[in-house]
Structures are given as C-alpha cells and as structure tokens.
Amino acid sequence: MIRRDIEEYVFDNQFASIYNRTSKSDLSIYVHGAQKDWLKHFLLKQKSNSSKVRGHWFQLEPRKTDHAFNIDGIFTYADSSQQFHAIFNEIKVQENRSPAIIPSTVNQAVIVTYSDIEKLHRQVDNYNGSSTKLHKTLQLILDNSTELAQVVLPKTDALVFSLKPFEALFMDMDSATNAKFDYRNFTIYELKESLNTKGMQPLLPLNDYKFLTVIEDFLVLTTTATAPEEFIVSHQNKSSLSQQAWWKDLSSNISDSSTLMYFMSLKNIQESVTDKSDSKIVNKISSNDFPFMVSQYVHEKGYAHYHTSIPQVDVMTTSKGITQTGSFKSPRKIIAGPFLFPNHLTGKHDVAFQDEDFKLHLISDTGKKHWSKDLDAIILGEITAIDGYKNGRKQLAFATSKSVYYLDRNGKDVNKYPIQIKGGITQPLSVFDYDKNRNYRFLVTHGKSLTMMDINGKTVKGFKYKKGETISSQPQHYRVGSRDYIAFAKADNTISLLNRTGKVRTKVVDKVTLNGQMNFQKNLIKMVDGDQLIYLNPTTGKITKSGKKVSSSQHYAALDGVEIIQNNNKLVLNGKTVELPYGTYNDVQIDKLLRDEFIHLIDSGENLVYVLDKKGAILNSFPVYGKEKSAIAKSKNNYLVTLDGQDVIIYKW
Fold first, then answer.
1. Which long-range contacts (CB under 8 A, 24 or more apart) does 521-527 make?
2. Residue 185: how many CA atoms within 13 Å on its side-chain side?
3. Residues 282-300: b if buried by 16+ CB within 10 A, e if exposed
C-alpha cells in the first residue's frame, strides 16, 4: 500500500507532507511519532503515559553495512507547537564532543548541542508553556558551553557540559563551594547549594546535583561525591564511548555534529522489556556483539534528519586493551604490597596488602573484600604463592620482622605457623622448590644465621649453616646444570655460594660492595659492585667485569632474556636504548608471565604506569593511572595492580 499512489491513501496532511519529501524508489517505513517514546513503546508493546508528543511522522530507510544495522530518514514536527522536537527547531548544530568523556559503562545518555542558549531556553519555555529565569550558576555554565548531556550510569546520574575553550575556570569555586578534595590529580568540588535546573526541563532533569569536577574540556555535575570518580577513571583509562573499538565504524554511519543524540545500552533495552516472549529473544543478544543503539537528529525548520545505528562488534578482531576491573579504598594507610595472589576458584588473581595496623587484607579482582588478618609486624619483601598440598590450591608464605607465616587462601594459619624467630628476622623469606616438585623449603634469615624449615614448620635437620658475618641480602636459589646454589651477600662484602645442606659450594675470593639485588641470567649471577656491573660464575667463583657502569642515579635489573640499565626514563634494554616520555620514574621491574617477560615501571611525576614487552615496546592502552608500586601476574588475563595512596587499583589486559 505504501508504494501506491498517495492520493488514494491520505491519512492526514502531515503524512502527505513527509511522503512527498521522501524517495519512492527505496523501501520506506512510516511511523506515527505522536507518542513521546514511540519506538520504545512500539517495540516493547507498552503504552505511553505521557501527554507530550514528539512530533508527527518518522520516515525510516533501513540500511545494512558490514558492521552495523542503520536506519536513516527524516522526522516532521510542528515548529511552533508544544512538541518535543520543536525545542530544537533551527538550532544550529555543534560538534558532539561529550562521547569522549562519557564512560562506556553508561546505560543511557541524551546529548544536546547549541550555539544560542537564549534561543534554546525560549523554545524550552514554549514547550513547557511557561516563562522562566535560569539559576545564575546554570546560566553561567550554559553560556560557557556548547553541549549538555544527561548521563545515566549503573549507580548514579550525571550532567556533562562540553566547555568552550578557556584559560581558567569561569566560576569562582572558592565562594561557590563548601569543600573540595582531590582524586587522581583532579579536584572534586562540593557546591554550597545544589544546581537548580528549573527552566531547562526536560533537557536537564530536576535532581540534587551538588558535586562538580572539570576534566579537560568537560564539566561534570553529579549527585554523589564518588560519581565524578567514575568519569575520572574512565578518562584516565581511555575507556570512554569514543575510545571503544566499535566507535570508528559507528562514526562512518553517523554525523560528527547533531542537535540531539541518544545512546541506549543493550542492557538498558533488555531491562525495559516486559513481554515474556520478547524478553526471551532480546536476552539472547550479547552486549559484546551489540553494545549500544545510537540515534541522532539534525533539525531544520519543521523537520529533522534522523540516523540510528546499531554497531556490531567483531570480538575476534577487537583489539584487547586494558580495563580497570576494580578498586578498594583501605581505611588505613597501606604499608606493604600490593601482592597478586592466584585464586584457584575463579581462575583469576586476588590482591593482598597490609595496612599500618599490620592487618593483612585479601580482596578480589573486582575490589570485593575476602578477609583481614592481624599480623605482628610489617611484611618483609614479597608474598610467595605456593602449592604445598600439590592439589592446585595455593597458599601464602611470607615473613615479618618477627615471624614466619603460612596461610591458606581463606587467611587461616597452616600447620604450626606462624613461627616466631628469636632475635627477629632480618631479610625477606626465601622460598625454594629445588626440583620443581613442590617440596618447598622456607629459608629464614636472622642476623648472621640461617634456618631452613619445611611446610609443616619443622626445622630441616640436613641444613646446617656455619654463621659468619651478618647476612646483608635475601638468599636466592639458582641452578646451573644439576647443581644448586644458595647465594647471598654479607656485611664484610663477601659473597656466599652454598649447597642444599648449607655448606660452601663455591668459594668466592673477590669482595663485592653489592648495590641492589643479585640477578641470575645465562648461568651467571649479575650484580652491581659499587658502580661496576659484574658477572659471577657460580661454578668457579670467578668475577668478571662487564665494562658497563651503573652510577648511583641508575638502576640495574635482569631476568632470563632481558637485561636493563635504567637512567630515569632511559632504558638500555639488551644494549638498545628505549626512551620513555620525560618524567620521574621509579625503579624498573621485570616479571615473567608464562613464557614472556614484561617490564613495568611508574612515572611518579605524572602518576602513570607503563608496561612494556621484552623488546621495549609499550603495550596497547598503556600507560594507565597509578601512583605507587606496581605488580603484574597472569591467570585468565594479565593483571596489573597499583596504588594511589589508600586506594588499590586493579587492571586486566
């Protein structure tokens, strides 16, 4: 019937108007747009409770591309009536910039652009049948912006304004706010009085917007003090809407400027479905395949160009970047950690840390707290994950300055542990698995002495070390061929190389002023002697100078196939110079995750964590935010954990 002569089927004058505007050669679908939420109510078999209408008619032309389903067309409305789209009549479009700051976790966003806020306000008043004066703070924000967005996040709502270029914030924040606090290098302000949005409904809903932050060229207003943090995290992690893998293809199907724009997440659509048969079908759709439905309008006089796109994401070709999986705010100052600990129940990694009350905490990768346990002192060095029962279920082994601890994953003491050491422990606990058969040995350093224990808490009688000078480095285990070496430095600048029983395996004649840690690579123990990089052959005890200098301002690290001399942002990696952006970097770390080595370090000036591959290339989506310390590990994903004061931040990539 649609393809027949229109004169025989004139439903009303408005339909005749839109029909005469559109092409007769392609398939067109015409929908009466009298209901405010016509599409939602039509698709979800719901009735509208609103007396407001959007306009007259939609003309829709379906169009399929390789990675999206699209609908294009026009929409007509009465430009002088109290119809919703009359608000935007002849409003000059501006660039849609807010998707660059809206988190990809958004449920729904409604975005409006404007160049003449007075005209937009008049047309809002006409729609509402009233005459209003805007609150002075709102007027100030609107005068200095070109775009507003209503943003509905999973746990809160927010308003976002795209600001005009400025050199300083146009508001006197000191007089407008009660308090302010910093989060990840950004300031969040608490307003003395909530922003009054009266006069801009329905574009700005009435709510208790009392917290404000400015991120780059965007002003964010929220109802809770923690909501701005979600925008800050999204911005720093490069996880906004416009930074998603599907955005590039979406941009080719929609305009970069519009008067009105909608984002609706699949999750939001699924939760809106009330019909059981429809719900069964819609819930089969994966948000990994179809994350959002995006619609936009460009208004002229009495009509608008209309575009809807449902991007389809090819998961197989989507580049895997880094995402933040969780965070946890410690009520007390963190003094040790973070440590990554494998969780055999989930196949992921949990995070352990110790606070200033000496409490050890374990949290999940999403930031959920598992347990806390009182310890007697600060943890020395690292926590080692071991499989003492040889069943794939890991336990935690570590030492404080007073005791050796051995805990199961529920935080319960194992066997006779903890075991106090008379006189105190002076080096981190060394955990050895000589033959890779999970027969673990705990080597405890206390002053000049060494004590070896098994997982049952019994002293290993076969290990007898004749004490000498104070041990000044953590004992390490190395294997060359079939021989084991326990290596450490002593206060008299000698190096000891012991066998499994604690007796001298190889005598080292030359003295070494150890600067940093020992590193084992290619059957050699590599270390810094004063400012000289030297190589110790454990089988002969001979020391060879490498000819490489490592000054007091430099740091040396080596692991398997990676050797690094670091001078702040410059890394000499296996002889090749890799230069990171200028900053203030902490000491580089090298870890092996399965078969590959990864390098990680923090620019403490900019609060950025870098992870590089063994060739020195920065991994995709890095750097990410991080302020103090970093640890990495691999299970189902690669995990990175870092600190920001009392905040533990967990990423995966």
1. 521/558, 521/559, 521/560, 521/561, 521/563, 523/480, 525/478, 525/487, 526/556, 526/558, 526/563, 527/556
2. 14
3. beeeeeeebbbbbbbbbbe
Cα separation, 649 vs 327, whole angstroms: 5
Helix (H), strand (E), coil (C) string for 525-566: EEEEECCEEEEECCCCCCEEEEEEECCCCCEEEEECCEEEEE
Token code pair at residue 260: 């009105």
Cα separation values, 451 from 444, 461, 493, Å: 5, 10, 21
Helix (H, G, I), strand (E, B) or coil at 70: strand
pLDDT of residue 345 exceeding 80: yes
Take residue 577 and report the two structure tokens written for it.
Answer: 């110079």
Cβ-contact 217, 97 below 8 angstroms: yes
Dihedral over alpha carbons 253, 65, 272, 307 (to 10 degrees): 30
Band of pLDDT at residue 624, cut at 50, 70 and 90:
very high
Largest CA distance in the chain: 108
| Helix and strand totals (H; E) in the chain | 9, 46
CA-nearest of 449, 446, 453, 450 to 431 is: 453
Q: What kind and span of H or E run contains 203?
A: none
Q: Are 201 and 128 in contact (CB under 8 A)?
A: yes
Strands (E), 408-539: 419-420, 430-432, 441-446, 449-453, 476-480, 483-489, 495-498, 504-507, 519-521, 524-529, 532-536
Confidence of residue 47 (pLDDT cuts 50, 70, 90): low
Task: For residue 46, give the 3-state DSSP assignment.
Answer: coil
Query: How big, in percent rounded to 5, are the helix, strand and coil portions of the chain?
Result: 15, 45, 45
Reported as a single tens digit per residue, the pLDDT across 104-125 is 999 999 999 999 999 999 999 9
Q: Residue 138: enclosing H or E segment and its boundaries?
A: helix 136-143
Backbone angles phi and psi of 87, in degrees to 5:
-55, -35
Alpha carbon distance 446, 470 (integer Å): 9
Residue type, 282: V
- If pLDDT is split at 50, 70 and 90, which confidence band does 315 have? low
How far apart CA 438 and CA 227 sit, in angstroms, is 47
Q: How far is CA 196 from the centre of its chain?
A: 33
Contacts of 174 (CB under 8 A, 6+ apart): none
For the whole model, what pTM was predicted?
0.81
Contacts of residue 459, defined as CB under 8 A and 6 or more positions apart, other chains included, come to 451, 452, 453
**What average pLDDT does the chain have?**
90
* Sequence-separated contacts (24+) of 314-321 with Cβ below 8 Å: 314/67, 315/288, 315/289, 318/245, 318/246, 319/245, 319/620, 320/620, 320/653, 321/238, 321/620, 321/621, 321/653
The amino acid at residue 244 is Q
Using left for φ > 0, alpha for ψ between -120 and 50, and beta otherwise, residue 518 falls in beta
For residue 175, the model assigns a pLDDT of 81
* CB-neighbour burial class of residue 10 (10 A; exposed 0-12, middle 13-18, buried 19+): exposed
Q: Return the bridge partners of 326, or none.
A: 650
379-385: long-range pairs with CB below 8 Å, 24+ = 379/336, 379/337, 379/354, 380/425, 380/427, 380/428, 380/429, 381/427, 381/428, 381/429, 381/474, 382/339, 382/428, 383/337, 383/339, 383/341, 383/352, 384/429, 384/431, 385/341, 385/342
Q: What is the residue whose two structure tokens read 């306009």?
A: 55
